[in-house]
Each structure stands twice: as C-alpha cells, then as structure tokens.
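seq as requested:
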Amino acid sequence: MEAEWTYPSPKVISVFNVWETRDNNWRKPHYPSYKVVTNLVASAFSLECAERLVREIAEDNRNSPYRHDLHSIRIIEQPVGQLYGPYGNLSEYVYDREGRLLDKRATPPGETWNGRSLEEIRFNKGDLCEVVFEREAILGIVQRVPPMMEEASQMHLDDSDDCYTVLTRKDEYDFHVDSLKLFKPSFKISAQTERKLRRYFAEEETLWMRLKIASTTAEAQLRGIMNELGWEADIRFPRWIEDSIGMEIKGVPGFPDGLRLELDQKKAHDRMDRVRISFLRLAGQHPEGRGYRLKRVTDYLKKPIEPEAWKF
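struct tokens:
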C-alpha cells in the first residue's frame, strides 16, 4: 500500500510597505484639483513595526518647516514571492498627517468582502470629498456610498467593491473610488466651486427621471411620424443614453421585408425636427432642411444576443 502524502498549505510571507503622499504645489491655488506625489518610504515585516514607522513619520513632520506638505500615510501589506495584481493587497491602512488611523481594509484576495457597517461609512451622500491618487488630488461630491453589510450579504463581493461613487467635473462620468482613497477636503472651497459640484450632483440625481420623460416624449413623436407616413413600427428605447433606439419598420418603399434601423437616442431627444426630415426623405419626399443619415441594421444583427447571467 502506497503511503498517502499530504502537503501543508504554504504560509504567505508578506511585507508591509509604508507610503506617504505629499502636496506637490501647496503654495498655488488648489481646487478643483492639485498635484501630489506618492513615494514608498519604508518597509517592515510586521504591522506593529510599520505602525511605529508611521508614528516616526508623523513626529518628524510635526517638527518640519514643511509639515503642511504631508497629506497622508498608507500601509499596504503585499505578499512576497508571488504575483498579486492590482487588487492583491492583503490589507491596507490609511493615516492622516498626525498618524491617526482613518480607515482600513483587511480582506485577502479571493475572499468575500462583507460590506461596511454604518460606523465605517466615513462619507455620506452629498458630502464634498477629496479623491487622492498617486499624482493628483481632485475635489468631488459623493453620489453613492459603499454597500452596507445587509446589502453585501445578498451578493458575492470582494474588496474591489469597497468603493464610493464620486462626481468630479461636468461632462465626466461618475467613477468608483476605492474607499481608502477618499479624504475630507484639505483646503478652503470657493463658493463657486461648491455650487458647480452641487449642481452636477442635482443633475445626476434627476438624470433617470429626465431621461424617462425625454424618451416618452421622443417615442410619442416617432410614432406620430410613423402614423403620418402610414408605416408600422416597433420602437424600442434602451436604458442607457449612449445606446441607440431600435426600430423595425414595415411599409417603407423598397423594403418589402421591412427595415431595421438604429437611431441615436440623443438626436431623438434633442433634434426631432431633423429626425423627421430624415424619415420624410426615406419615404421619397423632399422637405427643406437638414436631416440625419439613418443607420441600417443588417440581418446578422436581427436577433439580439442575450448576455449570460452572472454566476457567483
């Protein structure tokens, strides 16, 4: 009988790297953004030693004539001798310039993240905040907070889901920011800058309602144009403003089997007069004014491909 071999699970050796972030141009106007620089300044083989180094950095900074330069300190635990990727940190701790712990996360890669408790939510919806990256700090406003424990228990989340949704500038998409990259604003915010951010926030909060109203109006107008031309049309509006309206039209001259078109949703919302001209020309009429080039959908796209359900 052959011996039964067992292999112990290898122990993960990790290093605690200490990073500091400093204001790189604090003498100049700051918001809505300013430059920062982030450097690796120390390493340790235990959290206790790394925390001692954080206290030393904070103490040295208090006695420095450039103490206002220091923005924050961060301890990142990373495995040694193995690939870990951008989301492979074993744990992470964030401190202010005085060495006070602000936030932490200790969910190893591959393990389920259990969400945040109410006490762990440092920012609320509508709060102004600073989003700090390696080279830039940007003023923003919180639109959504990270999943709470009750919500997280119904989903399979990892530490990459521990993030806030933040709005920064007009005409930019909101983006998901790691909870450990958010800080209270460091400097005075002008009334004009705050008004802009709060206006973006209000516009984003009412976006879906405004889109629904615009889509309902556009659909009624499109059906009016189809009735005017005597065509039958199946009109499908997408959920996202970036996607196109799908139309299957019967009765179009030259297309006995029907015609499938895609129509830019923004054009339908903003310039229905030009959309109408486009359809009149498709019907063989010659109205004055400018229209749009309608995009025909080919047969191989006739049946949409349904995405597979997420499997957890």
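The longest strand covers residues 33-44.
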